[in-house]
């Protein structure tokens, strides 16, 4: 957990409220294929390599979800982990685990978004951000395909 002390905008005093960045890691396994139907097989293979194989390929993904919130002075918690775990089960594990993303997620169907790590994060962001309770803000998603490759996403318009 990272701590950042900030002055709340709603208070005209100089009282400081502690805020924390809390990260939960979860895993899911999924397959996908990179393919543009309007391109030739040669172009798809040149751009996407083995990721263009007809049956796709899979990963044991690790997702890190970072939320920011004030630390509750009564409980000492910045987020309800039970609620966050249920949210991740509903929006990540149930729809994605042990699925072929091109078939299970309409947005990743042939001719639509290619289910790259970047696009998976962009697809997840609005679903997770909109489902967090008041006072909690989604700050970062990090998706690991394996031990050597991951993508960080900070939401639309970041930076």
What does this protein look like?
The chain is of the alpha+beta class and 159 residues long. The protein has a single domain (2-153), classed as 6-pyruvoyl tetrahydropterin synthase/QueD (Tetrahydropterin Synthase, Chain A, 2-Layer Sandwich), CATH 3.30.479.10. Helices cover 27% and strands 33% of the residues. Helix 2 packs across helix 4 (117-131). The longest helix is centred in the middle third of the chain and has 16 residues, at 81-96. The two termini are 22 Å apart.
Helix-strand category? alpha+beta
Proportion of residues in extended strands: 25-35%
Question: How many alpha or pi helices?
Answer: 4
Rg calc: 19 Å
Q: Main traits of this protein?
A:
single chain, 159 residues, alpha+beta, Tetrahydropterin Synthase, Chain A, 6-stranded mixed β-sheet
Secondary structure: elements and pairs:
Blueprint: E1 2-6, E2 17-32, H1 41-48, E3 57-70, H2 81-96, E4 99-100, H3 101-104, H4 117-131, E5 137-146, E6 149-153
Parallel strand pairs: 2-4
Antiparallel strand pairs: 1-2, 2-3, 3-5, 5-6
Helix pairs in contact: 2-4
What's the short story on this structure?
The protein has 159 residues and is α+β, with helices and mostly antiparallel strands. Helix content is 27%, strand content 33%. The longest helix is centred in the middle third of the chain and has 16 residues, at 81-96.
